[in-house]
Write a structure and sequence with these properties.
Layout lengths: L2 E2 L7 E2 L5 H26 L4 H8 L3 E13 L2 E11 L18 H12 L7 H9 L7 H18 L9 E11 L8 E10 L4 E9 L4 H13 L7 E4 L3 H10 L4 E4 L1 H9 L7 H12 L4 H18 L2 H8 L16 H4 L3 H17 L5 H16 L11 H6 L3 H4 L7 H7 L1
Parallel strand pairs: 5-8, 8-9
Antiparallel strand pairs: 1-2, 3-4, 5-6, 6-7
Helix pairs in contact: 5-14, 6-7, 8-11, 9-10, 10-11, 13-14
Length: about 425
């Protein structure tokens, strides 16, 4: 890169090696000029309450305050805030608010880096490399953020839910190690699918096991804050969630996760036949209709009988009605309803964070970190398909017809197995 002349001044050499520093200097000069222009605007315009104060009092510039370091996405710059004397009220800059040391984007960056695996002790070195040696960021900064997350979560837990129209709900638990606890703590997580197409986090609550009592407590709290009964709840094979639903939302339809079911069935089979069995099971899960799914199920049961693997067939048909509930909803929504992936996908990144931290001293700390991560992940959740059919499903239009005539008696299934 060659020479660049700026405003008739002496030419400055801009090369790749010092490009970052050159950009920072340019941004620093631009921000400083904005601060100066802001004061000029204050003293010269005839609108606003400040102008009235100027008319009645001798108002004038009063130099600059001490140098202040401000960290932006492009690095750390140094600016001087202009001072104004004679105003009835303190001058508040719109460009650089009082006591601000980091831009909003940098404030978002810090929790994301932590939540995605950067340990507390590494922050000082890593962020000074990214944002400059003068960056006002340290491990204590992150520690204060974590305290703030706990306070944010407490407020979030109190928010009313009566304004939501929850059509679908996914429930799952994630286990984390809490340093001083003898057992792993489970976090009970619920995600709601709304009639406007959004997916939102509804609950993140700690417990010591996925029991009916624990899940019931979470569901009761949602109900007390005004949440309606969802049309369908998707969960794994844990009996706790289903018992809790019968206690709190007995009218909700229930759908077991096909991913969990496939894993459970494969565990009953020798490794040499698992690839073939997995393909057959996926064909069942992704059948175009419930009758087709049951036809392929029967073929799988016959294959199990031929291979002498009756236990795998028994595992497949166990709780069968909960495996095919999604067929009573519009076809466009099936891909969201077959599994608990809505909850499990964010946990892949979450486990990176828990692996990096190894152990938490308190369950509350783990809960706050995981809650904050899920809040960040929520922004990227895929919306529900076919928004025009969400309200219809919420109101129950056409749902019965979707599975009419497809009921299979449990005795018939067991006879085939």
């Amino acid at each position: 890169m060659g020479k660049q002349t700026t405003n008739g001044d002496q030419p400055s050499i801009v090369v790749w090696d010092n490009l970052e520093e050159w950009v920072r200097r340019k941004v620093q000069g631009f921000i400083q000029s904005l601060l100066e222009e802001e004061v000029t605007e204050l003293l010269g315009r005839e609108k606003s309450e400040r102008r009235q104060a100027v008319d009645s009092l001798p108002v004038y510039r009063n130099g600059h305050g001490k140098a202040r370091r401000v960290t932006l996405g492009c690095g750390t710059i140094t600016v001087h805030r202009p001072r104004v004397r004679g105003l009835e009220q303190r001058f508040e800059s719109r460009v650089l608010p009082m006591f601000a040391r980091r831009s909003p984007e940098v404030n978002k960056l810090i929790p994301q880096l932590y939540l995605h695996g950067l340990a507390l002790g590494d922050f000082d070195l890593a962020l000074r490399g990214l944002l400059g040696e003068a960056a006002p960021v340290s491990a204590s900064t992150v520690a204060r953020l974590k305290d703030g997350w706990q306070a944010e979560r407490e407020e979030w837990k109190k928010r009313p839910l009566d304004g939501m129209e929850v059509l679908f709900m996914w429930a799952d638990g994630v286990y984390v190690k809490a340093g001083l606890e003898k057992d792993k703590a489970v976090l009970l997580v619920m995600v709601g699918g709304l009639t406007d197409g959004r997916k939102v986090i509804l609950a993140v609550e700690p417990g010591y096991r996925e029991s009916t009592e624990s899940w019931s407590g979470v569901l009761r709290d949602l109900r007390e804050r005004g949440m309606n009964c969802p049309r369908l709840v998707v969960g794994d094979g844990n009996l706790g969630i289903w018992g809790a639903l019968s206690n709190v939302y007995p009218d909700a339809a229930e759908q077991r996760c096909w991913n969990h079911k496939i894993v459970n069935v494969l565990d009953k089979l020798p490794k040499k036949v698992q690839p073939q069995a997995k393909r057959r099971l996926q064909d069942i899960a992704y059948a175009e209709s419930r009758p087709e799914a049951e036809e392929k199920r029967d073929l799988f049961l016959a294959w199990c009988r031929k291979e002498g693997q009756r236990a795998a067939g028994d595992t497949l048909v166990r709780d069968w009605e909960r495996m095919v509930s999604f067929y009573q909803f519009p076809k466009e929504h099936w891909k969201h309803l077959r599994t608990t992936n809505v909850v499990e996908s964010p946990f892949a990144a979450l486990r990176l964070r828990t692996d990096a931290a190894k152990r938490y001293r308190k369950v509350e700390n783990a809960t706050a970190v995981i809650w904050k991560m899920l809040m960040l992940a929520e922004r990227r959740f895929q919306r529900l398909n076919a928004p025009e059919k969400l309200i219809q499903a919420y109101l129950g239009f056409g749902l019965e017809e979707a599975h009419e005539g497809t009921e299979t008696k449990r005795d018939d299934v067991l006879a085939i197995a």
